[in-house]
Design a protein that fits this description.
It is a single chain. It contains 27 helices and 31 strands. By secondary structure, it is α+β, with helices and mostly antiparallel strands. Helix 10 packs parallel to helix 12, helix 21 runs antiparallel to helix 22 and helix 24 packs parallel to helix 26. The model has no long low-confidence stretch (mean pLDDT 98). The site of phenylalanine has 10 residues, from strand 20 and helix 2.
């Protein structure tokens, strides 16, 4: 499959395509193994380009014929595409190719899922559909005719004519090929309508397979909320007569923002109280919003090249997080986002896969849909907004939309808009886009004669290809408290621009307690040598909800580290602090639940490694169990009362308030189960009328090893439901004790319902193993071998999903020599496979090179 050495592509080599595309006509004659795609494309020389080489991307296509201006041509064909001589001036290129959607297991290009046809073209999948300049800076209008026996035939834009067994679509908005989509199948629409702010009537549909039609209502409400929100907050109106969403079961990612025809992984759109958890509902709302917001940030303004991916993804993640903050609780959203950022992005940034938010090289672009591009990309926008202020941010966004509508833009264009609006020079700030690695921010304080001084120092460890790091611009939100807990200085933004910098406050009556990096104002690792008394104080008094949570988290970490490293027993300051949190009725239940949660075991391992201590996954696991048990004992009298208080009456609603109550109820149930052996959880399982309560009870029972009956009951109840079955698979691995995790995962891969070709099921099972820190890293090495076996099996079928899951091995350097050796042996075993995909080869060789 792979010929010779994979090629690295560099940002610095960008040149525009020699031709512009004036319009595109496509006809699809659908057949499972012999779909014909007939194209007619009008090209004209691009006055902005010197190189007039005519090359069209195309892979795995069977070319039947090609014509230029109506005359047959014999183009040169390689595995990557087609080249030919072309006339001077404008010309029409036509061709017909044959493709085989049914055998397309990579889920890229045109493929089949559960009897329906669908497409996935981002980033470079259109070249598997027909010959085309498959690059985001080539934009054109598309007219598409779909011929097939299916009742529903969809493509981008507005519907034109349709008849028996065909439909035509016209998309008036020029777009790059990666936003192309086609769907055909026996689907059912969940319809609705929306009136935009200028009074335009838009038809909305969520298309699903039969049997799923009762799981669309929530997604539809989320879509309408997103449309209203983007009008109100960003002044962005929808621009077609119709907006369609389609749910597909086989999908590599979460969802895709194709113009007017979003395609969703069914797990990211289908929802019902009986089958979806509160977390599912929240995620679905956020992803619907995300894809909808792409209509402006991604589609109307797209990326010049794939190095600019964060231009659309960072901004759109930022926008969807604003949306969720507005719909739900802003502080809860912020805390959850930071947990996620630290769990995924910090691990990436601190390891062999580290890359800048805007990378400057890649082998396979599919490997750069990362937490760095998405989540850190969003953090960078948040920092920019903090630095310029809300008003300037709003003005800059207006200018961005006005100036670049219809463009394929760059990060330079984006920053220029902010420079023009604010008069600031953002050259230094731009380092957040070009430099990889998480800055470590250390801080020292001094107090004398009423003068309080904070001195910060930033240091970014080297990352692959970037040994030296220049200082970044870091917005540090700081507040000061006095010893009674009263705030003497409300939140203020310090703008750090140098490697080392001090900030002073005069006239203070006594030495204040600083609350630093409020709201997590920058994605850095704060290193503050403080003690647990101060953390306990901030946990009790900080007015900033994020830092209050952070103080509890730091306290938990230091407690756990003392237990792991020195065999200490659980710290009573932590236990008292958490008991106070549990009882604090002034704190909303969701925040309390978040505060009661412990740092992940992987995060603890990283913290140890950062201190130069080799982490022992089993010891970390045991410390967490011990601390949980100690918390349960310490809170014994309060747990049942809070559990009772958090019962939600009436019909299920996924709103933030009842969901938060359930979250706290479940947290108390989980702790309590360590004392009652699962008795209360059995009751909850038996009486649950929604998935949140049912599955949380089951998870608790499995962890207590008393859930076998319930597990079978759950299977019998839900075996017909694919998305619930994914949960069933994942849950058993997640709840296993470390020595059993790989065994259970392996047994599940032999279950008749296991299907490695379905990415959701594969991730549910093997992704759950990779996420089980002590299980995956069990000293037997069984976890490593099982994952490697399955990656080897999956790679020829689905390179994208295989490559993404290779990230499980990225932290190998943290561990002891024995584990390192076992991990590298598995990495090398995969790398030695003949015909390994470019995706997987790139990931593993980067991991190996650490
Ligand atoms: N662009 C999609 C999103 O973030 C993600 C995606 C990338 C989906 C590549 C499929 C393939 O919304
Ligand atoms: Zn996106």
């Amino acid at each position: 499959m792979r010929d010779a050495a994979p090629q690295t592509i560099f940002l610095k080599d960008y040149t525009p395509f020699g031709y512009i595309v004036q319009d595109v006509h496509l006809t699809f004659k659908l057949a499972p193994r012999a779909t014909r795609v007939i194209s007619r494309i009008r090209f004209a020389p691009n006055p902005g380009a010197d190189n007039k080489t005519f090359f069209l991307h195309g892979e795995q296509l069977d070319l039947k014929w090609a014509k230029i201006n109506g005359a047959q041509i014999k183009p040169a064909i390689t595995p990557e595409g087609l080249s030919t001589d072309v006339p001077e001036g404008a010309f029409t290129f036509e061709c017909e190719v044959e493709i085989s959607p049914e055998t397309n297991t990579a889920l890229e290009g045109l493929y089949m899922s559960g009897g329906m046809y669908c497409t996935q073209c981002e980033a470079e999948g259109f070249r598997k559909i027909t010959y085309y300049p498959d690059r985001p800076d080539v934009m054109s209008t598309f007219t598409v005719r779909v011929e097939g026996p299916h009742p529903v035939l969809l493509s981008n834009g507005n519907p034109a004519t349709s008849g028996e067994h065909f439909a035509e679509w016209h998309d008036p908005w020029p777009k790059p090929a990666y936003l192309f989509a086609l769907v055909a199948g026996d689907l059912i629409a969940h319809p609705d309508r929306f009136t935009t702010m200028s009074g335009k009537d838009v038809e909305l549909n969520i298309y699903v397979r039969k049997g799923d039609e009762d799981k669309c209502a929530f997604g539809m409400e989320a879509l309408k909320k997103s449309m209203v929100w983007d009008e109100k907050v960003y002044g962005r109106e929808y621009d077609l007569d119709i907006f369609n969403i389609v749910a597909v079961d086989d999908f590599n990612m979460g969802a895709m923002e194709n113009k007017g025809l979003n395609v969703f992984n069914s797990s990211c759109v289908l929802a019902s109280p009986e089958t979806s958890t509160d977390a599912n509902f929240e995620r679905i709302e956020a992803i619907i919003a995300h894809e909808y917001f792409h209509n402006w940030t991604g589609n109307r303004i797209t990326c010049r090249d794939w190095f600019q991916l964060c231009l659309k993804e960072g901004l759109t993640v930022y926008r969807d997080s604003q949306f969720t903050s507005d719909m739900r609780s802003a502080s809860v959203k912020r805390i959850s986002d930071v947990i996620d950022l630290r769990g995924r992005q910090f691990a990436e940034d601190g390891g062999p896969l580290a890359h800048p938010v805007r990378p400057d090289r890649f082998v396979e672009i599919n490997n750069f849909y990362t937490a760095t591009v998405y989540e850190k990309g969003a953090e960078v926008i948040g920092m920019l907004k903090t630095l310029v202020g809300d008003d300037a941010y709003a003005k800059a966004l207006d200018l961005y939309f006005e100036r670049h509508d219809g463009d394929a833009a760059t990060i330079e264009d984006w920053l220029q808009v902010f420079e023009d609006v604010t008069g600031r020079n953002l050259k230094r700030f731009k380092r957040w886009y070009t430099s990889a690695g998480t800055p470590q921010l250390s801080v020292k304080e001094s107090f004398k004669n009423g003068r309080y001084k904070l001195t910060f120092r930033q240091e970014t460890p080297p990352t692959p290809g970037q040994p030296q790091k220049k200082p970044r611009v870091i917005p540090i939100a700081v507040g000061l408290l006095d010893e009674s807990g009263a705030e003497v200085l409300p939140t203020q933004i310090l703008e750090m621009t140098k490697r080392q910098q001090s900030f002073k406050w005069e006239g203070l009556a006594s030495k204040p307690v600083p609350s630093i990096l409020r709201g997590f104002s920058a994605p850095v690792i704060l290193k503050r040598y403080t003690d647990d008394d101060e953390r306990a104080f901030l946990l009790a008094h900080d007015t900033d909800p994020f830092n209050r949570w952070e103080a509890g988290r730091e306290l938990a970490k230091s407690t756990l580290l003392n237990m792991i490293e020195d065999g200490a027993s659980p710290d009573t300051r932590y236990l008292d602090g958490m008991l106070a949190v549990l009882r604090d009725d002034a704190l909303d239940p969701a925040t309390r639940a978040l505060m009661l949660g412990l740092p992940s075991q992987s995060e603890l391992a990283q913290t140890l490694a950062d201190k130069g201590v080799v982490p022992d996954p089993q010891a970390i696991y045991e410390a967490v169990q011990t601390l949980n048990l100690a918390m349960a004992q310490h809170m014994q009298d309060t747990l049942p009362r809070i559990y009772a208080q958090c019962q939600v009456e009436g019909p299920y609603s996924p709103d933030a308030e009842p969901a938060g109550k359930r979250e706290l109820a479940i947290a108390t149930l989980g702790l309590g189960s360590r004392l009652d052996g699962g008795k209360a959880a059995k009751d909850q399982f038996a009486s649950a009328d929604n998935m949140t309560l049912q599955i949380s009870a089951l998870a608790i029972l499995l962890r207590q090893k008393v859930g076998d009956t319930e597990l079978d009951q759950f299977y019998a109840q839900w075996k017909h439901d694919r998305l619930v079955m994914d949960k069933w698979f994942g849950l058993q691995v997640g709840a296993a004790v470390p020595e059993d995790a790989a065994y259970i995962a392996e047994k599940l891969t032999q279950h008749p319902d296991f299907d490695h070709k379905n990415p959701n099921r594969f991730r549910a099972t093997l992704g759950a193993l990779a996420a089980h820190h002590a299980g995956f890293h069990h000293i037997s090495g069984r976890g490593y071998t099982l994952l490697a076996d399955w990656l080897i099996t999956l790679d020829p079928i689905n390179p994208q999903t295989t490559a993404r899951m290779c990230a499980a091995f990225q932290t190998w350097k943290r561990y002891d020599p024995k584990r390192q050796e076992m991990i590298l042996a598995e990495v090398d075993r995969i790398l030695a496979q003949p015909n390994l995909s470019r995706d997987t080869a790139e990931m593993l060789s980067r991991i190996r090179a650490a």
